[in-house]
Amino acid sequence: MDIENAAAAADRSQLHLSLRDGPAPGEPFPPGSLRIRSLSRAECARIHQASLELLAGTGMVVTSKKAQAVFADHGARVEKVDDRVYLPAPLVEKALATIPSEITIPGRTPDRDYVMGGDRLGFINFGSTVWLHDLHTGKRRKAVKSDVMEVTRVMDTLDSLKILISMLNASDASPVTETLHTLAASLANTTKPVEAIPPTADLISKMALMGEAAVGRDTFRRRPFFFTGVCVVSPLTLVDDCSEVLMASVAHGFTTSVLSMCLAGGTAPIHLAGTVVQHNAEVLSGLTLGQLVRPGAPMFYSSSTTTLDMRYGMAAVGAPEGAVLNAALAQMGRYYRIPVRVSGG
User: Fold this and answer.
1) What is the pTM of this model?
2) Same domain, 231 and 330
3) Geometric angle at alpha carbon 239, from 238 and 245, rounded to 5°
4) 9 and 100 assigned to the same domain
5) Cβ neighbours for 191, distance < 8 A, ≥ 6 positions apart
6) Which residue among 161, 162, 232, 334 sits deepest, i.e. has the most Cβ atoms within 10 Å of its Cβ?
């Protein structure tokens, strides 16, 4: 029903997505720019309204009691029977207004700082791969901590990558501490900003201690050189770990990315406009939660949304539909005047 409601909200807005080159009428590109635009500002406003309708009428499933309490304390309606939280439009819009339009993600050294927002363009690698092809043995095997260290050193030298996420996981560590070992291997081999994706909130404080041990407590608190990312579960669900990692991250002063990975035709509507509305609503729910915990916290809008490959039941990364979706979602981040990151396929 959640997916059907997202599709219906898009239908009522009479949205149609397609790629077109050049600026929308009345919205010239800066000199020398090269862009693909899929939405006009008026179309962004319609998606925004459809997303607000979805959040207020259908709501989000929020399983964390702590997150439910935060939403309830700020005027959201919480239905305990099915853990559904209904977010009124004024609550969401007030939260969006407190997100910085420009954020600096520090590197371990100032020359590696990266500024997000506005017309700036930078790249980050994709990450969290479990398996690799061993160049020495020619065999497929699971990645280990030494692999994380080696590949991080390579990425550290690539000027095109402004931020790093661990490309591999340290699977030779305990599942309980794998994230910490992966982060440690990354931090020891680059001075660029690093994204960490802790699976549970209790790891946030441990990660902070690692940063403080590296550069000193006061320095790290002024310039935390890694940031965290959370992923909303489609359709329309903030699970415990997502909500509680997000709340712990912003409370510690870390920049936090809120991402959704909708699959059109699977966990989201088959038509792309409905997927954009659902994705937007999901990300807005996470951004709202973070701003309720700490107004003004540095956060940004993220997407790895694409379409479902129905033959193999997998995410069709690099599909043409993914390009259309992410062009539209990049426009939504710009519409809100907050930093945005989307998948490039």
Assistant:
1) 0.93
2) yes
3) 90
4) yes
5) 107, 108, 109, 112, 156, 225
6) 232
Q: Is residue 112 part of a domain?
A: no
Q: Which amino acid is at 332?
A: M
Domain housing 63 = 1-106+227-345
Sole residue written with tokens 């070992």 = 181
User: Counting every residue, how long is the chain?
Assistant: 345
Residues 249, 256: contact at Cβ < 8 Å? yes
Q: Coil, strand, or helix at residue 327? A: helix
Residues facing residue 303 across a β-bridge = 260, 342
Q: pLDDT digit of tens for each residue in the chain (345 aa)?
A: 789 898 888 888 777 666 565 555 555 555 544 455 668 899 999 999 999 999 999 999 999 999 999 999 999 999 999 999 999 999 999 999 999 999 999 999 999 999 999 989 999 998 888 899 999 999 999 999 999 999 999 999 999 999 999 999 999 999 889 999 999 999 999 999 999 999 999 999 999 999 999 899 999 999 999 899 999 999 999 999 999 999 999 999 999 999 999 999 999 999 899 999 999 999 999 999 999 999 999 999 999 999 999 999 999 988 999 999 999 999 999 999 999 999 986
CA distances from 104 to 36, 79, 101, 112, 279 (A): 26, 38, 10, 11, 25
Tell me, yes or no, whether 182 and 311 share the same domain. Answer: no
Q: How far apart are CA 11 and CA 266, in angstroms?
A: 18
Q: Is residue 115 part of a domain?
A: no
Domains in the chain, number: 2
Is there a contact between 148 and 182 (Cβ–Cβ < 8 Å)?
yes
